[in-house]
């Protein structure tokens, strides 16, 4: 039993961090471009450490690495060799581990679990077309397997406590990942991007894709992320019906809408006090709770205070 599995066994809520990109932008960094936060892995790794630290200081029990949009193809398109690309992807976990060590050294009496999750983003996150929010892919299952296989093996080897396989919007991709995750050594959670209270982004019923992992030997938790908070309670029920033995993870976004064409957000950010129904999600069965895009350390501190 590793540190993540031990934390789950305590049945204590695990508070996740918020949007890493959101915090980096708040800190003044320009993360525009195809690699998003991952471009700072080379240009300013200290910024990533500092962003992780901000969430740990706010009360997060788990920080998620800056590897969500990192891919070999993405770094090679920016002029890096495949070996350099792999080194940069792996460094995302290394930086999160550094942030944890520094935080624990500075806060020896903390009650934070200080878990490190290695982010495994969807294929769509590397396409710069918003397809991680639509689930519309023009790619075969075999090509998806080749895309995920090498990066997954790389992140599995870096010493994270858990693999955060997140924002999965597509049923075929979920099936590919279910197979690949049987081979990893690190426990994992899988969370889906959803379009409403019962379907993932490509229109597949959430219960259908959650059922793929109901008896999975390495996947310890299932749930929802980067989805408007208004849908979360209904989606928790979908997961519980399909995979009753798995822990439930939820980390919604602010409720705003992302536009890939100009990388902007529109709509009104939810009111945390009335729309981020943390206590309802906990009552519905969520064991891991945090925030995603457009949420920051103040929101994580508020979640901690509520719980």
Task: Give the SSE layout.
Elements: H1 3-9, E1 14-15, H2 20-26, H3 40-43, H4 45-58, E2 62-64, H5 72-77, H6 82-106, E3 115-120, H7 141-156, E4 162-168, H8 171-180, E5 188-192, H9 206-211, E6 219-225, H10 232-242, E7 247-251, E8 257-259, E9 264-266, H11 272-275, H12 278-284, E10 286-289, H13 297-306
Parallel strand pairs: 1-10, 2-3, 3-4, 4-5, 5-6, 6-7, 7-10
Antiparallel strand pairs: 8-9
Helix pairs in contact: 4-6, 4-13, 7-8
What does this structure look like?
The protein is of the alpha/beta class. The protein has one domain: TIM Barrel. The protein is built from 13 helices and ten strands. An eight-stranded parallel β-sheet has the order 1-10-7-6-5-4-3-2. A two-stranded antiparallel ribbon has the order 8-9. Strand 5, helix 9 and strand 6 form a beta-alpha-beta unit. Helix 4 packs parallel to helix 13. The protein is globular and about 50 Å long. The two termini are 26 Å apart.
């Amino acid at each position: 039993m590793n540190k993540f599995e031990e934390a789950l066994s305590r049945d204590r809520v695990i508070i996740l961090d918020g949007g890493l990109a959101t915090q980096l932008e708040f800190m003044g960094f320009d993360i525009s471009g195809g690699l998003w936060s991952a471009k700072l892995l080379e240009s300013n790794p200290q910024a990533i450490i500092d962003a992780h630290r901000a969430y740990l200081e706010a009360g997060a029990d788990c920080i998620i690495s800056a590897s969500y949009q990192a891919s070999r193809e993405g770094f090679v398109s920016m002029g890096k060799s495949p070996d350099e690309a792999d080194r940069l992807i792996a460094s995302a976990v290394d930086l999160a581990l550094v942030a944890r060590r520094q935080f624990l050294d500075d806060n020896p009496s903390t009650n934070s679990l200080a878990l490190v999750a290695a982010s495994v983003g969807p294929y769509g996150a590397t396409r710069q077309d918003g397809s991680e929010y639509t689930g519309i892919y023009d790619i075969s299952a075999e090509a998806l397997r080749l895309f995920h296989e090498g990066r997954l093996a790389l992140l599995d080897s870096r010493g994270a406590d858990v693999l955060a396989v997140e924002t999965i919007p597509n049923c075929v991709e979920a099936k590919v990942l279910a197979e690949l995750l049987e081979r990893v050594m690190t426990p994992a959670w899988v969370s889906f991007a959803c379009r409403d209270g019962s379907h993932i982004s490509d229109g597949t019923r959430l219960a259908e894709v959650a059922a793929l992992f109901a008896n999975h030997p390495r996947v310890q938790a299932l749930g929802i992320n980067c989805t408007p908070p208004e849908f979360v309670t209904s989606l928790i029920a979908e997961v519980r019906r399909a995979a009753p033995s798995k822990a439930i993870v939820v980390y919604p976004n602010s409720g705003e809408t992302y536009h890939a064409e100009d990388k902007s957000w529109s709509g009104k950010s939810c009111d945390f006090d009335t729309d981020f129904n943390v206590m309802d999600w906990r009552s519905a069965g969520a064991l891991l709770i945090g925030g995603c895009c457009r949420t920051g350390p103040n929101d994580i501190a508020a979640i901690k205070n509520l719980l």
